[in-house]
Structures are given as C-alpha cells and as structure tokens.
Amino acid sequence: MTAAVHRLLVLDDQPEAAAVRAFVASGAWRNAAAFQRLATRNPRYEVYAFDLPGAGTPCILKIAQATPAGHRFARRLEALVSHLAHDPARRALRGARRLAQNGIPTFRPLACWTARRGGIFRDSFLLYAQIPAGHSLKDYKLGATGLEPAANARAFDALVAPLADLVADLHRRGLRHDDLACGNFLVGTDGGLRLIDVDHVQTARLRRWPRLKRCFDLNDLRRLDLDDVRMDAFLRRYLGADDAPGWRRVFAFWRAGGNRPFRWLRRRLGLRRASVRA
Ligand SMILES: Nc1ncnc2c1ncn2[C@@H]1O[C@H](COP(=O)(O)OP(=O)(O)OP(=O)(O)O)[C@@H](O)[C@H]1O
Ligand SMILES: [Mg+2]
After folding, report:
1. DSSP-assigned letter for residue 115
2. pLDDT at residue 82 tops 60
3. I want to staple 238 with a disulfide (CB 3.0 to 4.6 A). Which of 59, 164, 176, 191 is the partner?
4. CA-to-CA distance for 274 and 278, rounded, in angstroms?
5. Using a 6 Å cutoff on CB, does residue 106 contact ligand 1?
C-alpha cells in the first residue's frame, strides 16, 4: 500500500480529523469491498458506506473514477477531461462547505484526496459523514419507502413545500446546484431535507439583474423530476408572489432541453432517445 495519496485535504475543524488522517494513511480505503456499496446512477462513481475506524462515525466514501469503464469512448474522454480539469471530490467538498456557510442543509465533508488504483490516471476520493436519513425523495417518488401507497403519497405531498422553500433559499443566496433531482434530496430522520451530490454547486452570476438571474435559476430546476401536479405545487410555492405564466414558460423551456439545443434538436429528429430517468 505504498502508492501515494495526492492532494490530500483533511478538514481539521471536524471532530473526526485525527481518525480521518489515520484512515487515509492506513490505506484501508483501497479495500472498498469491505464496505457496503450503495447504488449510484452514474457509472463514473462508486459510493460506499462504512463506519470510520477509530471514530465510529457512519461515513460515505464517494470515488470518482478518472476513466469510467461503463461509458462509451466519447463519454469516457469527456469525463476524463473534466476529471483532470476539476478534481470532482475537491469540487464537491467546496460545494458542501459553500452550502453549509449559506445555511443550506447538506452532508458534513471530512476529507478528499486523489490516488491511483491501477490505472494511469488518479481517481478522486471524497469522504463525508453519512446523513442519518431513511430515504431520498426518489424513494417517495417510486413508492419505495415501505409506506402504504396512500401514506407514501401524503408524505411526499407534505415534502413539496419544504422542498420549494429549500430551493428558493438556495437561489436567494445566489447559489445553484445543477442537479436538483429527487435522488439528491435525502429526508433526514428528523424529517428535514438535505441536499447531496454537490460537485456542481456554483455561485450565480448576474445577481444585479434579478429578472435575468431568475431565468437561470429556473434552469437549475430542469432536472427536478416531480410529477405535473407536485411540480405545479412546487412552482407556486417557489415563485410565490412572482408566479406568472411568463416564468412558467421560461421553466418549460429549460425543462424541454433549452440549455442543450443540439441535444434537443437531435431528440426531436429522432436521432437520440429521450432520456430515461426513473
Ligand atoms: N451523506 C449521505 N448520507 C446518506 N446517504 C447518502 C449520503 N450521500 C449519498 N448517499 C446515498 O448514496 C446515493 C448516491 O449518492 P450521490 O447522489 O452522491 O451519487 P450519484 O452517483 O449522483 O447517485 P444518484 O445518481 O443516484 O443521485 C444516494 O442516493 C444516497 O442514497
Ligand atoms: Mg445523486
């Protein structure tokens, strides 16, 4: 286990810092098979849950592969370029800190580093504390919470207003997430929502032009995969006093693929399959 760890960043203000340093130095993170693997949609990531040795904190290790095997060649190349340009773990760590500084509930990052695991390029590792959460909003959407269908639907309905408030708060604070999908909102055991998957959190530009800013804020909602009725309730709450057909049209434009016009056109011409997101 002598292969080097690079770009190690441990958040020393966290109570687990010493245990985190010992864990990274031990190389135990290389033996991910000893951890519990969690499902992820993106073949670029491996996500594992385990208790941090020496501290006992339930943690998540999210590994971004430099050259994901599951991708086609062009996607692989694209992923590699992006991986080399912006270390995804470091970006996520920064994203989580930025959210926390702005009072947006998310996970607690502990460390990030890069290391080679057999390949030519270094994979990127992010270690963070697990959120005590039962389910994600996606589980409510799929009816996979273990609740009776009617109770599941009621609980899901009740989460729409807090969801709209959280997203409105995020945007009011001049931040955007870029992957606001149901799978990225965890429902904590305290009932509160937490936003995860924060590699793409960014500060909004154009903040001095609120109407223009709002146009791009609505783009941030394009992946929010709620059904029509809940989406309507969400938008009513999110837009509040500004709810107007014009803003709904801007949202519909982004939703239909306005930020990727070529992809939209290819889909329209039947050259590309519609994206399937459960
Ligand atoms: N801090 C956390 N606490 C508890 N569970 C977590 C945490 N972070 C991630 N998970 C679990 O791991 C799964 C994948 O995490 P994440 O969203 O970061 O990766 P992803 O590759 O984007 O996956 P997906 O495409 O399913 O959203 C989540 O759906 C969630 O169930
Ligand atoms: Mg996710």
Report:
1. E
2. yes
3. 164
4. 12
5. no
Q: Note whether 102 and 119 are same-domain residues.
A: yes
User: Are residues 160 and 71 part of one domain?
Assistant: no
Nearest ligand 1 atom, CA 133: 4
Q: How many domains would you assign to the chain?
A: 2
When comparing pLDDT for 16 and 133, which is higher? 16
Separation of 277 CA from ligand 2 center, angstroms?
Answer: 12
Beta partners for residue 124, in sequence order: 64, 114
Q: What is the pLDDT of residue 193?
A: 97
Asked if residue 153 and residue 120 are part of one domain, the reply reads no
Regarding the beta carbon of 50 and ligand 1, being less than 6 Å apart is answered: no
Residue 63 lies in a domain: yes
- Determine the residue of 40, 46, 52 to mutate for testing ligand 1's pocket, defined as the one with the most ligand atoms within 8 A of the Cβ atom: 40
**Ligand 1 atom closest to the CA of 138, numbered from 1:** 29
Q: Which two tokens stand for residue 24?
A: 């990274």
How far is 169 from 179, CA to CA, in rounded Å?
A: 16
Is residue 246 over pLDDT 60?
Answer: yes
pTM of this structure: 0.91
Is pLDDT of 1 > 50?
Answer: no
Q: What single-letter amino acid sits at 128? A: Y
